[in-house]
Amino acid sequence: MSIYRATVIAPRGVSVKVKPRKLKFTKKNEKLSYMLSVSAKPLELLPGNSETVFGQLLWSDGKHVVQSPIVVTRQKPY
Known about the structure:
Layout: E1 2-9, E2 14-19, E3 22-25, E4 35-40, E5 50-60, E6 65-75
Antiparallel strand pairs: 1-3, 1-5, 2-4, 5-6
């Protein structure tokens, strides 16, 4: 059995929540799901401009670490 705990390194200006915060694997090749919620306050940009920020989601069992990138692009349409 392995238990992986989540650590979120949120992109600048973005709120990121993960549920559940831990995944408990009891069988070999078992697949589990999680949900990532991402929200951000409006950003003052000129029309046509955009901003991309980066973060990551880490799952660790104390020995192994699995990394998933989080990329958020906000843009103001013309």
